[in-house]
Amino acid sequence: MSNALHYGSGVFEGIRAYNTPEGPAVFRLDDHMTRLKASARAYAIPMRHTPEELAEVCLELLRVNELESAYIRPLVFYGLGSTGLNPAGSEVHTFMAAFELGRYLGEEGIKRGIRAMVSSWRRISHNSFIPTAKGSGQYLNSILAKQEALRAGYEEALMLNESGSVSEGSGMNIFLVTNGVAHTPPVASGILEGITRNSVAELLRVEGVEVRETEIARGNLYTADEVFLTGTAAEVTPVREIDDRPVGSGEPGPVTRLAQDRFHAVVAGKVPEYRHWLSYV
Question: For position 245, which CATH number holds?
Answer without folding.
Answer: 3.20.10.10
